[in-house]
């Protein structure tokens, strides 16, 4: 098993998307990239802790590669929006890749450079590439949020579900059965 740590805005959305991929064994929502130890959701929501809402994606490299996870990362959100995703605004919603080793850093930098050179997006990618230092698991009610709340929460229905449907179309050959 290996771990990728990505921030693509709201961790509920990130978790719901990456849970769909073959080879992804577990997705844990939490906080990374900040200066406060053991932050709470309330603290991170203020934008003052330096943390981003992020997910630890635990995966089997024999089933899905880090390169494939990076491809999913760049489809899962808009990496050209600085400190926001849609209506979620603040540094806690930034686009970030927290690399665990030199190979992950090299691949992240490579793909960002390639996508910018190819002008894959209308604007330049602003994704932060930073070393993984610490990850703090979010409160239990944030874990598996979409699956537990899709029938009752309007955010799940009107924000996450349409994004998830689009993601599934792109990665239809990589989805779990």
UniProtKB/TrEMBL annotation:
Enzyme Commission number, as recorded: 1.8.4.11
Keywords annotated in UniProt: Oxidoreductase
InterPro entries linked to this entry: Met_Sox_Rdtase_MsrA_dom, Met_Sox_Rdtase_MsrA_sf
This protein's record includes keyword Oxidoreductase: yes
Any Pfam family hit: PMSR
Keyword Acetylation: no
Gene3D superfamilies: Peptide methionine sulphoxide reductase MsrA
GO molecular function: peptide-methionine (S)-S-oxide reductase activity
Catalyzed reactions per annotation: [thioredoxin]-disulfide + L-methionine + H2O = L-methionine (S)-S-oxide + [thioredoxin]-dithiol; L-methionyl-[protein] + [thioredoxin]-disulfide + H2O = L-methionyl-(S)-S-oxide-[protein] + [thioredoxin]-dithiol
Residue ranges occupied by any Peptide methionine sulphoxide reductase MsrA domain in the UniProt entry: 3-156
Positions annotated as active site in the UniProt record: 10
Family statement: Belongs to the MsrA Met sulfoxide reductase family.
Function: Has an important function as a repair enzyme for proteins that have been inactivated by oxidation. Catalyzes the reversible oxidation-reduction of methionine sulfoxide in proteins to methionine.
NCBIfam families assigned: msrA
Entries under HAMAP family matching the protein: MsrA
PANTHER family hit by this protein: PEPTIDE METHIONINE SULFOXIDE REDUCTASE, PEPTIDE METHIONINE SULFOXIDE REDUCTASE MSRA 2
Protein name: Peptide methionine sulfoxide reductase MsrA
Organism per entry: Mucilaginibacter phyllosphaerae
Lineage, highest ranks first: Bacteria, Pseudomonadati, Bacteroidota, Sphingobacteriia, Sphingobacteriales
């Amino acid at each position: 098993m290996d771990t990728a740590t990505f921030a693509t805005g709201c961790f509920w959305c990130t978790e719901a998307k990456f849970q769909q991929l073959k080879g992804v064994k577990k997705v844990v929502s939490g906080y990374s990239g900040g200066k406060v130890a053991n932050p709470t959701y309330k603290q991170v929501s203020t934008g003052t802790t330096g943390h981003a809402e992020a997910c630890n994606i635990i995966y089997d490299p024999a089933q899905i590669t880090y390169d494939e996870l990076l491809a999913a990362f760049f489809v899962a959100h808009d990496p050209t929006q600085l400190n926001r995703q849609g209506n979620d605004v603040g540094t806690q919603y930034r686009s970030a890749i927290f690399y665990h080793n030199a190979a992950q850093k090299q691949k992240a930098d490579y793909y960002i450079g390639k996508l910018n050179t190819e002008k894959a997006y209308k604007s330049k990618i602003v994704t932060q590439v930073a070393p993984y230092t610490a990850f703090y698991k979010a409160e239990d009610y944030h874990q598996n949020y979409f699956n537990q709340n899709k029938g009752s929460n309007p955010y799940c229905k009107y924000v996450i579900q349409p994004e998830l449907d689009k993601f599934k179309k792109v990665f239809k050959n990589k989805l779990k059965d």
